[in-house]
Amino acid sequence: MNQRIRVGIGGWTFEPWRNNFYPADLPHSRELEYASRQLTAIEVNGTYYSSQKPATFAKWRDETPDDFVFSLKASRFATNRRVLAEAGESIERFVNQGIAELAHKLGPIVWQFAPTKRFDAADFEAFLKLLPEKVAGIALRHVLDVRHETFMTPEYLALARRYRAATVFTDSDDYPSFADLTGDFVYARMMRTEASLPEGCTPAVFDQLGACAKVWRDGAEPAGVPRVEPAPAPAAPRDVFMYFISGAKERAPAAAMALIKRLA
Question: How far is residue 228's CA from residue 167's CA, in Å, rounded to a whole number?
Answer without folding.
Answer: 12
